[in-house]
Amino acid sequence: MASRTKTRDRIIQASLGLFNAQGERNVTTNHIAAHLGISPGNLYYHFPNKQAIVAELFGQYESRVDQFLRLPPEREMQVQDKALYLEALLGAMWDYRFLHRDLEGLLDANPQLAQRYQAFAGRCLRHARAIYQGFVDAGILLMDPLQAEALALNAWIVLTSWVRFLGTVGAGAGSLDQLQLRRGIYQVLALESGFVAPGAREAVAALQQQYFVELDPLPDSRGV
Prior knowledge:
By secondary structure, the protein is mainly alpha-helical. The protein folds into two domains: 1-48, Orthogonal Bundle (Arc Repressor Mutant, subunit A); 50-211, Tetracycline Repressor, domain 2, CATH 1.10.357.10. The protein has helices spanning 2-22, 29-36, 40-46, 50-68, 79-95, 98-101, 103-109, 111-137, 145-169, 178-191, 201-211. The longest helix is centred in the middle third of the chain and has 27 residues, at 111-137.
């Protein structure tokens, strides 16, 4: 039984590495089996198809995000909490970055996964609104509930599309690195700039500077 579990775990880990490096569309179950040095039949014993592997990996990603996207218990929010949440989220996005390269294609190919993702996104947005409200309650941000809802949605759009954005302005998927991904934290912090309370502006500005990363190449707005 332990050997079977070990093989299953190896398939999951190898698939994640191959999907991240080459893109899920470009990797077949035969590629995964060959990479591991096992027969396709051995792989199919554990997973009937590639969709099942993708669903397993999404479950890992979903569980990881669900664990940290919560308000801290029994204390007020602090400016540094912004970095903690965004670091954790972008770390998960980096480790499972293949999910964000072709999310629409993955969901179109698997209606059950699409339903799971819709529920996951809804939970994330609810928790994000609660977190922003926590910053309001702590006197760090100044906004009403409607503004908090809009900010949570805008932050979600930026973060979940950041991997694809980097692929369009760089040399493609192979050019992605974690440093570029960190610029996504700055982009979300920039969305909040107009809502920062006077007493927190210096600390938030220092946090923004910490996460600013030059992106090269970027479209030149001063060009044609």
